[in-house]
Amino acid sequence: MEVHHGLRRRRRRVLADVTLDIAAGETLGLIGETGSGKSTFARAVLGLVHVSAGSISVDGEDVTGYNARQWRALRRRGVVQYVFQDPLRSLDPDLTVEDSLTEPLLLAGTDRRTAAGRARDLLTRVRLPHELLTRLPGELSGGQRQRVAVARALATEPRLLLLDEPVSALDSANRVHILEILKELRAAGVALVFISHDLGSVAGVADRVAVLHRGELVETGPVADVIRAPRHPYTRLLVGSAPTLHTPAASRSERAALRAQLAL
Length: 264
Known about the structure:
Belongs to the ABC transporter superfamily. The protein has 264 residues and is α/β, with parallel strands linked by helices. The chain is 41% helix and 18% strand.
């Protein structure tokens, strides 16, 4: 996959030669610093940016050449869903939890009574009490909002779920709740892409990890292999800087040397 951005005369390539296959029931950790191309990758999969080379296939369907109408239809079917890092920005502040959960179902043609029952089931699925259905997002805690955002993404039974830093702003208890939900989704055959800047945060969740640096896929492989023997200088920098990984921490001089390599 390649993605370019900007006007015709000033176009710059923001993703280059990124090839990723994600199987049903697999969790892929997509790692990289700000500006590495993580969000651009997610937006390309959602059809929000143009792919200038390569192809995208979702649930066996080649969607690369889809026009705006076809992308809208695909999104309404909910095959792919995205959970934003900040649920307070992704949830409409004027809609109750019930309205937020039923909206994608109503758009897909579900009758209102069935959608209301489904909203209750979704809250149960993310371990939230039904009395929250009448609340507005601003009346919920951060952990509750994040779980509502996950529930909303699950309303259409997606086959691929993209999660942008889903636990970075949560306390340990809510982090455990979210990770348990993701584990259940994986067991149900949903493919998950866990987007993060921190390798340590996905090490215990992902099956494989893909490392993006300056718009290029510099390393990919099983999590344990990448942590044990990182090949690219940027990956070695990530591994050495992650305090939660059971690896010797890189010294300041070692990190400086790796950064010097990356600057070449």
